[in-house]
Design brief:
This protein is globular. By secondary structure, the chain is α+β, with helices and mostly antiparallel strands. The strands form five sheets. It has a five-stranded antiparallel β-sheet with strand order 3-10-6-7-8, with no helix packed on it. The protein has a five-stranded antiparallel β-sheet with strand order 14-18-15-16-17. Strands 1-2-11-4 form a four-stranded antiparallel β-sheet, with no helix packed on it. It has a domain at 4-128. The protein has helices at 60-63, 165-169, 239-242, 246-266, and strands at residues 4-6, 25-32, 35-40, 43-44, 57-59, 72-76, 81-86, 92-93, 104-106, 110-115, 120-128, 131-135, 138-141, 151-154, 178-182, 188-194, 197-199, 216-219. It is built from four helices and 18 strands.
Amino acid sequence: MLVGAALAVLLSGPLAAQTEATHPVGYASLNYVSGYSLLNTQFADNDLNDMNSITVTTLLAGTLWNLNPGTVVQRWNGTDYTSFIYGADGMWTDTNGLPAGNVVLQVGEGLVVYNPGPAKSLTTFGYIYGASVEDENGLVETTIPESPPGIYLRGPIFPLGPNSFQDIMGRAPVAGDAVLKLTASGISLLSRYTAAGWVDPQGRNLAPFLSEGESAFFDTTGGQFLNFRLPDAASIPEPGAMALTAMLILGWFGTVGRCRRALRAEF
């Protein structure tokens, strides 16, 4: 849900040092639910004079904080996942329990998030690379370039919604395209595009849309997620390495198992 977006806000820290921004500053609330969510890094932590939003980056530590300990975040690189775990000390580690360092994310990149605790209200903020400041009267939205065929995990870069397939992928959908979302319990929700239009998970013809801060998997290969896999439980470290509780481990395995069974059933 969008909390607000403005051309100028009073902030502390590095953002406050910018006096004449090329890009407007905004902030939004993330839907950090208990269980699974697909979240989106839609803000940048710098104000570069660069309209190519796909190459602009931000830091994981500056995008997600104040999370429940044991939260697992997984990045998708087009073929596989990389996992990071949020500790009780507020630090990110990899699956070996080692400090993750400065994990650089692309603006608009989606993340698979598993929250083992209760839902919380999270706010993220920064520079909006989905638009530039034209003058005091308005904004100019960034044109999203079309990407080559592949499987992407993405969300909107402009904090207004709802956002369509074309808003995120830079082109209109064609037959063979597909969009995959997840429920909080880890069940996959697949929408396919056919010659007759969209077919949603309930067999209707509703197009998939994303809200602010939300992401989804997009398959533009024509295979509609054939042989695609969701995050693997094996990427989670042993309890001794990260002091994860048995409840978290069992919960993750159970949720991933249900999710993968549901995904296979979709196809």
